[in-house]
Each structure stands twice: as structure tokens, then as C-alpha cells.
Amino acid sequence: ALLPVEAADKPTVTYDGLEEEKNQFALIMYDPDAPSGTHIHWVVVNISGIGWNLDRRGTTVCDYKGPAPPPGKPHRYIFLLYKQTQQTEGGGEIPKYVIESLKTKLNQSRIMNIDDLLSPLHLSDLAASVRFMSQTKGGRKGKKGKRGRKMTKRRWRQSKRRTRTE
Questions:
Q1: pLDDT score of 76
Q2: What are the φ and ψ backbone dihedral angles of 28, each rounded to 5 degrees?
Q3: What pTM was estimated for this model as a whole?
Q4: What residues contact 123, with CB distance under 8 A and at least 6 apart?
Q5: Residues 83 and 127 sit within 8 Å (Cβ to Cβ)
Q6: Where is 43: in which H helix or E strand?
């Protein structure tokens, strides 16, 4: 488990698998536990070769955004490394128009079903995956009221006044 501050900076990603220097890869990081749906944290495609600093060898579709789980339960953050298949135009390279379309979608909202991200990229050949957990220190913020809602200081003061007058 990592605190959000410990994973705030973009990591150095390496892959030493197989002799696949001629293939291209796609790297995806996401949070499947986000309250509003799967949150995409990082996407890099057309990564050529293997070894150190994979993201420097590819095209960034979505810039890295470190974990920021809300207080409460820990969230999973998953890295997926896919080998780009030959189904795409250009012998495995993701076309620029697909990249630009995804950039536009992800700039509007990073909430996206993971299958909706994999489908236009034609990614199905998973080469590696890693995950870590992150949790905001301190658990829940605020006190709970009678109805189970998180109470702001103002609501708490108002409830105290009502209790005194009753």
C-alpha cells in the first residue's frame, strides 16, 4: 500500500520480457474503485522496444495523474502493458486519428469503462500487469448526522443548537 503522496510523481516503468524489440506496446494505469466509475490515470501507446523508461519511447494519450482516493476504503491502481496487435493499421502502430480521438475523450473526462479504452486501440494481448493499493490517511472526514450524511461544521453547529433548544 502506498500513500497518494508516495505515488504522486510519474513512475519509471520497465519491461524486460521476451525478445520483443520489434513489437510495440501500450501502457495503461487506472483505478477501478473510483466512486464515479473507472478512472483512467495514464495511457501511453506505440511504445517501441523494451527496457527502461517505456513511456519515453511512446506517444502519451493521457498524462500521468497520481492516486487521489477519497477518504475511506483503499483503492486499487492497476498497470497493464499490452502488446499492440497487427490488427491496427501500420503493422501494430496505433494511428494518430485514434490517439487524437481518445485524447479528446479523456480530456473531457477520465472516467471510462476499460473495455471502451481497449476496443479502439485493438488491445487484447496482455504482456504484463502490476497493481498497488493506495488510501488517503485519516479515514473518513467529518461526523455523521442522524440521517447518516457527512456533517459539515455548519450542519453540526445547527444540530447542536436544535438539541439545546428542544
A1: 95
A2: -130, 135
A3: 0.76
A4: 26, 82, 84, 85
A5: yes
A6: strand 39-48
